[in-house]
C-alpha cells in the first residue's frame, strides 16, 4: 500500500505546473499570476484633490473662520480630466473637483462645504492644514515597484489594480482542460427511468463542478459502459485536447474493471492507497496525457478529490496555498478507524467561542456510498494511520471544507 502523503506527491508531480499564457484582464478572474507585475505608472499618477472644493495656499486662509471669512479671487476652474493646469498664484484660489490635478503652488484644498461656493470670488470659512485633502503622487503605488506578485490569485481587487496601473493583459497560468469520464454499465442519466439494478450517474456531475470550481475547463463523458473497446473508442480521441483525464469507477478487484483493464500496460499504474475511503486508485499517462482514475463510490470520489486532486490541480494552476484549513477539535462521540489506513470521516465542526479548538462529530457512517451525509458535513475528520479508535472528548484533526 502507498501512503496518502506519497500518493498526493505523486499526483501533484504528474500534473506539474501549467505553462504561462497571456489573457485580457476580462478573462483573468480566478486565474493565477505567472509573473510579477510592475507598475508602469504611479498611483495616483499626479498630486490631486480628494474633495470638491478650492485649491489654495494654507497660509492664505490661516485666519479664516465662520465670522472671519477670507475672500480669494477664483483664478481658474479645474474639473477632473483637465490636463493643462496653470500654477496657483499667492492670494488666489482655483475651484477644483475630486480627482482633478492640483495646480503647482497649492498646498491644501478647502472643501466646498467650508465656503460660499463662489465662482468669481470665494469666501472661505475655515483654515486648512498644509496637505489637507491632497492625494500625493505615488502614495498608493510607486512607479516601477511590484504591484502584484507571481502566484497571486486574481480576484476583483487585484484585477482592478492591474487595470489602474495601465495593464490590458496579464501573464497567467493557463487554465487546465480536464476530461471527466464516469464508467459503469449500471449508470443511467436522468431523465431516463431507472430499472432494477441501475442507478443514476452522479460522479461526473460532482467532479465537473468541483474541478470547474477551481478554475479549470471541464468536458464530461457520462456513463461509459464496462467494455474496454468502447471505453477506448469513446475516450482516446478526446485525449489530445485534455491536460488531464479523471475517471471514476472500474478500478477495484472485480471481473469487469473497465478502467483498470483498458489502461493497465498503457502507462497507468493501479495501487491501493492507505486510506479509507478512496483506497483503490490509479494514475499515470495515457498517450502522454496525465490520467487519475478514482474509485466509483461517490464519497470515495469526493474524498479522493480532497486528498489528491484538489491540491494537485491547485498547484498546477499556480496556487501556492493548496491546503484546506486544518483545525483541532474535540470529538463529541467515539469513533473507530481501520488501523494502517488514514480515515477521512464526514463531520460537522462547530467553533467554540473563546477556545482555539472547537467540537466535531461525525455525520453519517464510514460507508463510501453515503452521499447525503457528505452534503450535510462541513469538514473531514482525519484519523491517522496508527489509530484504531478515538474516544469522545479526544482532540482530532479536522479539515474545513
Ligand atoms: N473484492 C473487493 N471488492 C472491492 C474492493 C476491494 O478491495 N476488494 N474495494 C472496494 C472499494 S474500497 C471501492 S471504493 C470500490 C471501488 O470500485 P470501482 O472503482 O471498481 O468502482 P465500481 O465498482 O465501478 O463502483 C463502485 C460503486 O460506486 C457506484 N458508482 C460508480 N460510478 C458511479 C457514478 N458515476 N455515479 C454514481 N455511482 C457510481 C457503483 O454503482 C458501485 O456501487 O470497490 C470495492 N470493492
Ligand atoms: O476505499 Mo472505498 O473508496 O471505501 O469505498
UniProtKB/TrEMBL annotation:
It comes from the Bacteria. Signal peptide: none annotated. Its cofactor is Mg(2+). It catalyses: adenylyl-molybdopterin + molybdate = Mo-molybdopterin + AMP + H(+). InterPro entries: MoaB/Mog-like_dom_sf, MoaB/Mog_dom, MoeA-like, MoeA_C_domain_IV, MoeA_C_domain_IV_sf, MoeA_linker/N, MoeA_linker/N_sf. Pathway: Cofactor biosynthesis; molybdopterin biosynthesis. It is an enzyme of class 2 (transferase). Its EC number is 2.10.1.1. Residues 179-315 form the MoaB/Mog domain. SUPFAM superfamilies: MoeA C-terminal domain-like, MoeA N-terminal region -like, Molybdenum cofactor biosynthesis proteins. Keywords: Magnesium, Metal-binding, Molybdenum, Molybdenum cofactor biosynthesis, Transferase. Pfam families: MoCF_biosynth, MoeA_C, MoeA_N. Belongs to the MoeA family. Catalyzes the insertion of molybdate into adenylated molybdopterin with the concomitant release of AMP. This is Molybdopterin molybdenumtransferase. It comes from Amycolatopsis samaneae. The gene is glp.
Amino acid at each position: 500500500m502507498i501512503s496518502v502523503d506519497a500518493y498526493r506527491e505523486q499526483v501533484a508531480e504528474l500534473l506539474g505546473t501549467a505553462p504561462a499564457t497571456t489573457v485580457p484582464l476580462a478573462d483573468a478572474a480566478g486565474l493565477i499570476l505567472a509573473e510579477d507585475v510592475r507598475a508602469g505608472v504611479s498611483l495616483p499618477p499626479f498630486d490631486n484633490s480628494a474633495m470638491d472644493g478650492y485649491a489654495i495656499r494654507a497660509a492664505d486662509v490661516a485666519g479664516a473662520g465662520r465670522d472671519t471669512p477670507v475672500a480669494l479671487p477664483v483664478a481658474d476652474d479645474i474639473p477632473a480630466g483637465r490636463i493643462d493646469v496653470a500654477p496657483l498664484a499667492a492670494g488666489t484660489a482655483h475651484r477644483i473637483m475630486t480627482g482633478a490635478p492640483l495646480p503647482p503652488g497649492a498646498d491644501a484644498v478647502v472643501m466646498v462645504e467650508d465656503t460660499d461656493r463662489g465662482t468669481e470670488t470665494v469666501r472661505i470659512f475655515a483654515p486648512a492644514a498644509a496637505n489637507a485633502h491632497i492625494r500625493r503622487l505615488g502614495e498608493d503605488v510607486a512607479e516601477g515597484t511590484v504591484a502584484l506578485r507571481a502566484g497571486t490569485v486574481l480576484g476583483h481587487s487585484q484585477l482592478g489594480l492591474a487595470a489602474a496601473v495601465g495593464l490590458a493583459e496579464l501573464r497567467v497560468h493557463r487554465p487546465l482542460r480536464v476530461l471527466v469520464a464516469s464508467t459503469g454499465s449500471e449508470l443511467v442519466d436522468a431523465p431516463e427511468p431507472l430499472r432494477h439494478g441501475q442507478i443514476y450517474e452522479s460522479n461526473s456531475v460532482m467532479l465537473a463542478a468541483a474541478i470547474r470550481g477551481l478554475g479549470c475547463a471541464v468536458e464530461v463523458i457520462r456513463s461509459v459502459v464496462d467494455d474496454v473497446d468502447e471505453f477506448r473508442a469513446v475516450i482516446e480521441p478526446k485525449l489530445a485536447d485534455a491536460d488531464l483525464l479523471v475517471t471514476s469507477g472500474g478500478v477495484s478487484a472485480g471481473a469487469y474493471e473497465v478502467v483498470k483493464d483498458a489502461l493497465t500496460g498503457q502507462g497507468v499504474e493501479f495501487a491501493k492507497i492507505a486510506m479509507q475511503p478512496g483506497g483503490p486508485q490509479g494514475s499515470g499517462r495515457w498517450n502522454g496525457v496525465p490520467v487519475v482514475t478514482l474509485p466509483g463510490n461517490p464519497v470515495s470520489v469526493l474524498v479522493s478529490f480532497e486528498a489528491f486532486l484538489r491540491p494537485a490541480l491547485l498547484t498546477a494552476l499556480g496556487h501556492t496555498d493548496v491546503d484546506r484549513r486544518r483545525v483541532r477539535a474535540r470529538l463529541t462521540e467515539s469513533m473507530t478507524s481501520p488501523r494502517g489506513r488514514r480515515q477521512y470521516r464526514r463531520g460537522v465542526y462547530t467553533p467554540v467561542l473563546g477556545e482555539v479548538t472547537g467540537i466535531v462529530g461525525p455525520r453519517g457512517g464510514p460507508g463510501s456510498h453515503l452521499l447525503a451525509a457528505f452534503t450535510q458535513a462541513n469538514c473531514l475528520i482525519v484519523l491517522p494511520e496508527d489509530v484504531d479508535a478515538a474516544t469522545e472528548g479526544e482532540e482530532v484533526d479536522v479539515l474545513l471544507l
